[in-house]
Amino acid sequence: RSQSATASDRGKPRRQSISRDAARARDGQSVVPFAGGAPHITYEIMYPANLPLEVRQSAGNVSVDNPIAKIDVNDTSGDIHVTGSRGMVTTAASDGAVQVDDAHGAIDLESDAGNVTANLARGWAGSSIRMQSAAGSIALNVYAGFRARVDATAGGGGVVKNDLHLGKQSPKAPLAFLFAQQGNVTIGESQ
User: Fold this and answer.
1) Which of 32, 86, 109, 115 has its CB 3.0 to 4.6 Å from that of 136, i.e. a possible disulfide?
2) Could you give the CA distance from residue 38 to residue 188 in angstroms, rounded to a whole number?
């Protein structure tokens, strides 16, 4: 099943999309007993661009493109991918990876069993970064000149800053909390 949404930003059409793969039972069979192949359904949803978005998913991948307002995605079994977010992004994946690209606002990302990756937009203006994985690695890619107070811990791996200079630590700088219980934490500069 996939979902997409189109929103308006002060009269200008703005395309936002949400999609998820078809659900499958643990044995790989379709959850629809009479369907031989994987079902695929698409929805078009119109909503105001400044409306916060909350997505709850139990099986399959979730993708959200260009959300303007706050977004909260919870996926029990599948990957989460958010691109071009303007507001705060909160995600929780029980069994899957989390990836956020071109983030402009605060991020709070976690996965119980998967990697967590964030690529910050140039000029990122968020107030905080929290990335956590119990059984996966953390990768934070930042722009040149990025400033933050970084608290990075890797319980079962290492912390790598890839020759990144995070500038003078200021109490007013945003906090970046990065924790991988069984993987590595990597902080690098976006290309």
Assistant:
1) 115
2) 38
Question: CA-CA distance, 117 to 114, in Å (whole number)?
Answer: 10
3-state class (DSSP) for residue 151: strand
Strand stretches in the chain, DSSP E:
2-9, 12-19, 42-48, 53-57, 62-65, 71-77, 80-83, 89-95, 98-103, 107-111, 116-120, 128-133, 138-142, 149-154, 159-160, 175-180, 185-189
The structure tokens listed for 3 are 């979902």
| Residue 139, token pair as written in the block | 């990768």
At 92-121, the pLDDT tens digits run 999 999 999 999 999 999 999 999 999 999
List all residues 6 or more positions away from 37 whose beta carbon is below 8 Å from its beta carbon. Answer: 30
The residues, ordered by sequence, that sit 6+ positions from 170 with a Cβ below 8 Å of its Cβ are: 147, 149
Burial degree of 10 (CB within 10 A; 0-12, 13-18, 19+): exposed
* Structure-token match 């691109």, residue found: 83
Residue with the two structure tokens 């909160």: 90
Please list the ranges in the chain whose pLDDT falls under 50: 1-36
Cα separation, 188 vs 191, whole angstroms: 9
